[in-house]
Amino acid sequence: MIEYLHIGLFVLVAVTFGLAVVVVSAFLGPRKRVKSDLSPYECGIEPVEKSSNRFDVKFYLIALIFLLFDLEVVFLFPWAVTFRELSVYGPLMMIEMGIFLGILMLGLFYVWKKDLLNW
Amino acid sequence: MEQIDWLHFGVMGVVTLLVFGTAANVAPIMIWVERRGAAFMQNRLGPNRVGPFGLFQSLADAVKFLFKEDVIPERAHPYLFMIAPALVVALAFLTLAAIPFGGEFFIQGKQYVFQIADIPIGLLYVLAVSSFAIYGILLGGWASNNKFALLGAMRASAQMVSYEIALGVGMATMILLYGSFDLREIISFQSTGIFSWGLWSAPLTFVVLLIAVFAETNRLPFDMAEGEAEIVGFHVEYASMKFALYFMAEYIHMFVGSAVLTCLFLGGWHLPGLNFSSLEQTLLGWGWQETMANLGVVFVQFNIMLAKISIFLWLFVWVRWSFPRFRYDHLMIFGWKFLIPLSLVSLVITTVIVYFRDVL
To answer: pTM for the whole thing?
Structure first.
């Protein structure tokens, strides 16, 4: 279990490094704040509308489909690691995953035909 | 309460420092390699003024980044805006923890490994932590409170999310092939000569994973996150060292990706024809102490590993200056309609091979 303590300590090292660099550069840099320096990047004109505006629904759909597929990928890992050991009892492991992947492919095909993957 | 083993923490501290230092130096060195490589491919000189061959150019750049004005735009959320780059770089470093860079060594009869954390689920850990990179990018784009930055962040995260599925299936294929999550064990499976390397067992998966790693690290031809000359990325509002941290994180992700590919496909620190136990015998024969000989072998392994990683890193540079950028819709279509089916096909092929070769 001590290995996980290493990770914990390394988290401290990494986070400290990241924050330290940000803070140090904030103190070292010059401060000659001009109004135009601080205005958001908007091709030189005053920003119109809020930035948290509506965006394309495509991004949302991609996120949803990703969630589904990534969840199914997670189910692949325990299967993959025990495949060799459990396959000695017969080809059931392979057939089951064949069905599972079949359903996965069917889902992909459905999304494909629904034209959700085109931009 | 057990006695705290200070030697243990001392040794692991040195190991951590070595790995961390190597990764931290990858960014400046790779920027130099990239710029000189670009110049070499485009028949020009590249940076050659600071130090020999311009070697200190990155150092000069880093100093300049540190002393630049630290702009926080008036509309941005100041704390999130500050935290996002720190988070990105911290997460990039964290993925390093599970990657083995060398074999075992003994100090005062206790075994250590050249790896920050020798966890049995190493590959899963790398996959989990590296997918956190999306949060940093999304947070940066959102905290900037700027339309272009937000759109850039959406674009980048949609791309990374799409290629992560192919990456996950590819990883599952390799786990199936080796029957283990443990990167140290995976490397030991590849220790018997060049034909035991994963590259020969699963060439299709190698292609899938290589492409997915390129997309995950936002490198050309998949650099929709940045595209410095054409499109506005998620870090338009970032200046000075905060921008540099995003840059650094990208290079560390490249380093980690290359290291994982090396472990899975190129046999880690093993070289064909180099037997580490006989190497240790040779070192002992030269009158080295046992611990020193042991550390010498680990040092050799570390360097072999780094050499193999740099092959991949050079490939990143080479591809960057050889291929034009994808168009965004092409990129998404390529990911969903080609790479994911390809990764599933390679999984099926590998399953059948493993079943008929190893089980029957």
So the answer is: 0.92
